[in-house]
Every structure is written in C-alpha cells, then in structure tokens.
C-alpha cells in the first residue's frame, strides 16, 4: 500500500534495514513489489506510449528500477535502461531482475543518449550511499538535472546521504521520491528534502507495526 510519506514516521537506514530483513525472512518478493509499485506510480504520471529512461545502479536499487522498466514496457511505454557499470557482486534478486528485463526484449546502454525522455526513474543509489559520487555517476546526474524533465527517485534521490541529508556531490533533483518500507530521515531535513520533491512510501505488503517484545 502506498502512503504519503508524511503519514509514516521517517526511519534511520539501520531501521529500514531491519524492516527489509523482516520482509526477506517472510519470503516476500520485495524487489518485485517495489518495481511494480514504481511502475504503477510512474504510469500514473505518463501519457500512453511515453519515453522513459531508467537509470540502473549496481545494487538492489538498480534491480527495483529494472523491474519497473519491464513493467512499464509491458504497459506500452518506450523504455530505455542505462547501466553504466555492471556489478559482479549484485544480489540474486538484482541478477534475476536483469535477466527478466533482457528476456522481455529490453536492452542495456552504458551511456546516456541525447534524447530527453518524458520521465527518468532514478535507480542509481538508494539508502546505502555513504561516499561522494564519482564518475560516471556524477556526470549522469548532472546531465539529467540539466534536462529539467520529470524524475522519480526510488528510495531516495541518488547523491543524498539517507540519514543526514548531506549532499554527496550534486544529487539528482526528483519531482517524486518513492521510499520503500519507510521514508528516510533525509526527507524530513531541509537540506535533503529540497532534492526529494513529493515524498511517498510503499509498504510492500509488509506489516510495519513492530513485532511484540
């Protein structure tokens, strides 16, 4: 279920990781649900047959974006996926998302084209980013920001430290941020919130009430 982020308390990265661990322990298809929710959210802001660019990072955030890419393509949109760097250490879920995207006829590009899309889905980095942005990530983000097109960030805009809201370089400027399980602390702090746009949270079907002691 999707909520306004203001209806859910912001959580630290450690607390969100604990929620993730609960979901995995229950065997929930977390990445599939995250990507499906992102696709549905994006579709609600798009005209039929729109041009969508999905930015794919090396971790699970990138896997979420790949699931969204496959779903949006099935909805009839024209979807491009850019994965600048493939990670040999990707999780099994992220590898499966990539395999499904390719099996569905999707392709991967390493670099941005000059074609400005109707919407960008930011799946570069999620709540785990703790170091300054390096290349090619920073140039990609600066290019997208210069386009002034619509951006949907997954979890948190890439380039923000999720707990402090510190900018680790120039973050991507989102129109919407769709957090999974709980909004990050950065979304409630002025230095971080200014990059996030409207904030939403998707619970991925996990009961977010704390278990009894």
Describe this structure in words.
It contains 6 helices and 8 strands. With 213 residues, it is of the alpha/beta class. The chain has a single domain (2-202), classed as Rossmann fold (3-Layer(aba) Sandwich), CATH 3.40.50.10260. An 8-stranded mixed beta sheet has the order 1-8-7-6-5-2-3-4, covered by helices on one side. The two termini are 25 Å apart.
Assigned CATH class: Alpha Beta
The percent of residues in helical segments reads: 25-40%
Query: H/E series, N to C?
Result: EHHEHEHEEHEEHE
Beta-strand segment tally: 8
Largest sheet: 8 strands, mixed
Number of domain units:
1
Shape: globular
> The CATH topology, please?
Rossmann fold
Q: What is the topology, as strand order, of the major beta sheet?
A: 1-8-7-6-5-2-3-4
How far is the first residue's CA from the last residue's CA? 25 Å
Structural class call reads alpha/beta
Q: Helical element count? A: 6
What is the CATH H-level superfamily?
YjeF N-terminal domain
The amount of beta strand, in percent, is 15-25%
Mean pLDDT: 94
């Amino acid at each position: 279920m999707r909520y306004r982020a203001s209806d859910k308390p912001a959580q630290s990265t450690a607390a969100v990781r604990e929620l993730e661990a609960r979901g995995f322990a229950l065997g929930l298809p977390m990445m599939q649900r995250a990507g499906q929710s992102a696709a549905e959210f994006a579709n609600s802001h798009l005209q039929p047959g729109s041009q969508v660019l999905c930015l794919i990072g090396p971790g699970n955030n990138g896997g979420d974006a790949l699931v969204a890419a496959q779903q949006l393509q099935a909805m009839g949109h024209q979807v491009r996926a850019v994965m600048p760097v493939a990670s040999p250490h990707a999780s099994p879920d992220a590898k499966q998302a990539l395999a499904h995207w390719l099996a569905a006829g999707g392709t991967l590009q390493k670099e941005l084209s000059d074609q400005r899309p109707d919407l960008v889905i930011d799946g570069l980095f999620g709540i785990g980013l703790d170091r300054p942005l390096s290349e090619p990530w920073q140039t990609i983000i600066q290019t997208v920001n210069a386009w002034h097109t619509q951006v949907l960030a997954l979890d948190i805009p890439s380039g923000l430290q999720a707990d402090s809201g510190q900018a680790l370089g120039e973050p991507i400027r989102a129109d919407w941020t769709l957090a999974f399980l709980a909004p990050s602390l950065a979304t409630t702090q002025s230095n971080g919130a200014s990059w996030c746009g409207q904030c939403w949270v998707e619970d991925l079907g996990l009961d977010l009430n704390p278990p009894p002691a």
